[in-house]
Design a protein that fits this description.
The protein is α+β, with helices and mostly antiparallel strands. The chain has 5 helices and 7 strands, in the order ββααβββαβαβα. 49% of the residues lie in helices and 21% in strands. The N terminus is likely disordered.
Length: 232
């Protein structure tokens, strides 16, 4: 930058020229940098502001989709766990139904027990059913049984009950010598015991087979929108 030097009447030198030529160079550099920065800012606002807004909007949408995808993954995992639990429950139900008859089939179990007694030459004298005892899954039916026969036949009968396909238990066993007239016919002992049979009642069966209610969807924790009739 050049400057014009003039001399006044008194002989003093006076510099003339533009404003930039009369300030130090580092101020000139600072002003130039500020002008360049202002130009870049204005250019960015005019050309890229809309693009930046669209980019921010797309990033927000991507984050929302990621959150929904994570939520869907949790729901799928819960559904898979529920299906596995249901399959295990069905297998358990099948095993229980193999061991525990329902209330209709329990009469057949009683008939089978009586057949075992006859096959082992035990004379049935008493078969009194008590009051059923309800439990969470099964119902226990106690039966007071009295039989007459030989000691070996009674032992064989108890052994066969141990391998019976249904769940049975024998408690309070009492064995006494039979009367003289019974011994003459080969029945040397009289025995009384408590036989407990287990079965599934209709109420328990419905409770076990009833499908579980589906888990409620997670609550939406997003910001609540103001009602339409109120100003935002």
């Amino acid at each position: 930058m050049s400057a014009v030097v003039t001399t006044n009447v008194a002989g003093d030198k006076i510099e003339s020229g533009s404003f930039l030529t009369r300030i130090p160079w580092y101020y000139q550099m600072a002003i130039l940098v500020a002008l360049v920065g202002l130009l870049i800012y204005v250019t960015d606002m005019l050309l890229y502001s809309d693009t930046r807004k669209e980019t921010d909007k797309m990033i927000e949408q991507v984050q929302t989709l990621k959150a929904k995808n994570a939520q869907g993954s949790i729901i799928r995992q819960n559904l898979q766990a529920t299906e596995e639990a249901l399959a295990l429950r069905r297998e358990e139900m099948d095993r229980l139904r193999d061991l525990l008859p329902d209330q209709v089939e329990i009469s057949k179990v009683y008939d089978n027990i009586k057949d075992l007694m006859r096959n082992n030459r035990l004379e049935l004298k008493q078969f009194n059913q008590g009051k059923p005892a309800e439990a969470e899954i099964y119902t226990a039916q106690q039966i007071l049984v009295q039989v007459s026969g030989s000691y070996d036949a009674l032992g064989k009968f108890f052994s066969e009950l141990g391998f019976y396909k249904r769940i049975l238990s024998v408690t309070d066993v009492e064995i006494k010598e039979a009367e003289d007239n019974a011994q003459e016919s080969g029945r040397t002992i009289n025995s009384a015991f408590m036989l407990t049979a287990y079965y599934i009642s209709p109420a328990n069966l419905e409770k076990l087979t009833k499908p579980q209610p589906a888990a409620p969807p997670p609550a939406n924790k997003g910001p609540a929108r103001p009602p339409a009739n109120q100003p935002k």
